[in-house]
């Protein structure tokens, strides 16, 4: 056949029944995958809307932090700022878990960061300026945004990969597998009809031969009887 069919298929009624069941499963799977693809795309764009706001907040906070740090360096000197930085205590705790989005495991971060005073950060009042304290607060704020940004960007990356893989499976079913199954069904059905016609002709010829033989035997028997 010119149409694409499954190789090595046997044109039998059992094979046709099995193939029809496979076609039904493929069609059902195609529908489910399309629903999954659409849900993933919706989730993807919902998260994409969040990314812009988080990135803008992170960039704004970092810009303000850098400005405050430059002012602190001018007022205190680089050496004093470095000394104060070395005395800062760690203050952030990040818990990373996951959630499932249509079967895709994406990260979820939980940032624990308490609001701290100058004393809590580890440097004193006497040898620091308000600009340094402002820079510290802005950098702490930036860290939260950057962690959240990392979470959503990783989620977008994972969802994009799954969307692409799901699209490939949908297209393979829609344009290759299901048409191939359907074409093979038509091929088997056509071959079964051809075989039925061939059997009918064969049986008709056998019946005709039998009848001719009976007629011949009858003629011979009559000739014998008349003799």
TrEMBL record:
HAMAP family found in the cross-reference section: ATP_synth_D_arch
Subcellular location as annotated: Cell membrane
Protein name: A-type ATP synthase subunit D
Chain coiled-coil ranges: 48-75
Record membrane topology: Peripheral membrane protein
Secretion signal span: none
Similarity comment: family membership: Belongs to the V-ATPase D subunit family.
Recorded GO CC terms: plasma membrane
Subunit structure: Has multiple subunits with at least A(3), B(3), C, D, E, F, H, I and proteolipid K(x).
Gene of this entry: ntpD
Chain's role: Component of the A-type ATP synthase that produces ATP from ADP in the presence of a proton gradient across the membrane.
NCBIfam families the record matches: PRK00373.1-4 (NF001545), V_ATPase_subD (TIGR00309)
Keyword tags: ATP synthesis, Cell membrane, Coiled coil, Hydrogen ion transport, Ion transport, Membrane, Transport
Biological processes annotated in GO: proton motive force-driven plasma membrane ATP synthesis
A molecular function GO annotation: proton-transporting ATPase activity, rotational mechanism
Domain of life of the source: Archaea
């Amino acid at each position: 056949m010119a149409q694409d069919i499954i190789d090595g298929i046997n044109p039998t009624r059992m094979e046709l029944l099995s193939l029809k069941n496979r076609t039904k499963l493929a069609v059902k799977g195609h529908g489910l995958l399309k629903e999954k693809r659409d849900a993933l795309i919706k989730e993807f764009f919902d998260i994409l809307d969040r990314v812009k706001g988080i990135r803008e907040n992170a960039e704004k906070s970092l810009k303000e932090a850098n400005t405050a740090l430059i002012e602190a360096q001018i007022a205190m000197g680089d050496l004093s700022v470095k000394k104060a930085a070395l005395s800062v205590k760690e203050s952030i705790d990040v818990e990373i878990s996951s959630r499932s989005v249509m079967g895709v495991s994406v990260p979820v971060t939980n940032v624990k960061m308490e609001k701290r005073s100058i004393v809590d950060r580890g440097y004193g009042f006497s040898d620091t300026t308000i600009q340094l304290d402002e820079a510290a607060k802005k950098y702490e704020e930036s860290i939260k945004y950057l962690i959240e940004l990392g979470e959503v960007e990783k989620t977008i990356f994972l969802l994009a990969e799954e969307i692409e893989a799901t699209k490939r499976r949908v297209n393979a079913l829609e344009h290759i597998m299901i048409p191939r199954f359907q074409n093979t069904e038509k091929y088997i059905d056509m071959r079964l009809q051809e075989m039925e016609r061939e059997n009918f002709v064969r049986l008709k010829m056998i019946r005709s031969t039998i009848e001719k033989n009976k007629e011949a035997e009858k003629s011979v028997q009559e000739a014998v009887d008349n003799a």
